[in-house]
Amino acid sequence: MDLDFSLVIPYLPLLVNGIILTIKFTVWSTIFGFTWGVLLSLIKISSFKPLALLGQFYTSFFRGTPLLVQLMLIYFATPQLVGYDISSLEAGVLAFGLNSAAYISESIRGGILSVDKGQREAAMALGVSEFRIMKDIILPQAFKNILPSLVNESIALLKDSSMVAIIGVGDTLRWAQQVQAKTFRAFEAFIVVALIYYVMVMVLTAIGSYLERRARVSD
């Protein structure tokens, strides 16, 4: 087996930019997906039936179609439909955030429904508003219950972020593609990227474990 990692070394400074972009993309997608996922979960448990059905259809659509198709659709169809020249990074964050929200909303909905109904009834008997019941009683408990699934979703976002290289985002995987094109060394370039992703996933897993321990202590 002929391996020569020395050919990859001159391109390592460019890898730093790719890693930063990957992290930035993952953070923004996670924030957007989580925020929209919370709102979507509340929509799906709404007593207003048409709104709840709309939320269920949204979830069904984004969970039932390939993420790659959603990414390509947003990137190429947005200029055609609304006349906005969306950047590849914006398209990626939008596609991944919208897709992630569908999964996160289901986790949050399950977490909300897992909270004992007696707590809501007791709070209502004391005259606490519905907004404060949800904000101060139900959602904090729901988030503790679903924290592992939220961490898993963030890890999935980080790994799936490599798809944005397809539309030209200069992320970590894009770096490997460029190095391969210039050096014709596919194994060296992609094994470096695989290790980078592995390290980032392990760091995110460690952060998730820390948050779970803190959540258990706070109980």
TrEMBL record:
Keywords: Amino-acid transport, Cell membrane, Membrane, Transmembrane, Transmembrane helix, Transport. GO terms for cellular component: ATP-binding cassette (ABC) transporter complex. PROSITE patterns: ABC_TM1. GO terms for biological process: amino acid transport. One of its GO terms (molecular function) is transmembrane transporter activity. Gene3D superfamilies: MetI-like. It comes from Desulforamulus aeronauticus DSM 10349. Residues 19-208 form the ABC transmembrane type-1 domain. The chain crosses the membrane at residues 12-39, 51-77, 189-211. It is found in: Cell membrane. It is a multi-pass membrane protein. Belongs to the binding-protein-dependent transport system permease family. HisMQ subfamily. The keyword Transport applies. It comes from the Bacteria. This is Polar amino acid transport system permease protein. SUPFAM superfamilies: MetI-like. InterPro entries: AA_ABC_transptr_permease_3TM, ArtM/GltK/GlnP/TcyL/YhdX-like, MetI-like, MetI-like_sf.
